From TrEMBL:
Keywords: ATP-binding, Cell membrane, Membrane, Nucleotide-binding, Transport. One of its GO terms (molecular function) is ATP binding. This is Amino acid ABC transporter ATP-binding protein. It comes from Vreelandella gomseomensis. The keyword Cell inner membrane does not apply. Signal peptide: none annotated. It is found in: Cell inner membrane. Gene3D superfamilies: P-loop containing nucleotide triphosphate hydrolases. Pfam families: ABC_tran. Residues 19-264 form the ABC transporter domain. It is a peripheral membrane protein.
Amino acid sequence: MTSSFQPAPRPQPTSAPAVVANQLIKHFGDIEVLKGVSLEVPEGSVTSIIGASGSGKSTLLRCMNLLERPDQGELAIADEAIRFTRNPQGGITGLDRRQLQRLRAKVAMVFQQFNLWPHLTVLGNVIEAPMRVKGLSRKQATALGEHYLERVGMADRRDAYPAFLSGGQQQRVAIGRALAMEPRLLLFDEPTSALDPERVNEVLGVIRGLADEGRTMLLVTHEMHFAREVSDQLVFLNQGHIAAEGTPEDVFDDPRCRQFMAPAA
Ligand code: ADP
Ligand code: MG
């Protein structure tokens, strides 16, 4: 099927950061899970976050699209900047609804457990947010959805329900769904950790293709070889602190990371 859909042009790579997080702090109850995390992701580049379980990787990603709200710090995505502060009553200020919506529309996330809607078809999953959040008509959203399903190699399963797909296929649909929002930043939280080993490569292949296209991405992964291969920047998170950051070579050679890396070497 041909469609008149034209994907949105992506910003050209520049040295300007697409994402800046400055001194993000996040508590759950009395526990400080992020202890002042600062991070820059240049436009068109891939940053991978590695670290032990419980070190705050998912919380950091979830703060990036405001699934979690930081207690303190600053976050800027493209031209949308937000400063978080605790008010004296213990609540958090720094966000109005419209700003929240604008920021969320710039960021899309792919989860470990795919999180597809089971009652919607593959195409239904992909067109839902473009219709609801971006206000596209069903026809427009369908053209866009078909384009991005093609991109992840799932166009021929557009009418299938998630339960009839393998984990790898479901994750590729979830990536198509994220792309259909045409976000400035793509977040991946351990996108292959729930997959059978023989399904890992088909998903890594899609992510590698997106990296080669110059998409701006922040990726949490335990696939060390993959992280090393696709990342421009690597961040090692340890107990809510960035313990090391730099090129993959720098970080892999850092003695603080050696112990963590050893099992994967
Ligand atoms: P990682 O992704 O690196 O494994 P997480 O960001 O999921 O780490 O978790 C970091 C810490 O925050 C853990 O101690 C975890 O138990 C805690 N935590 C995460 N989410 C919540 C939550 N919603 N409520 C309370 N504690 C949480
Ligand atoms: Mg996690």
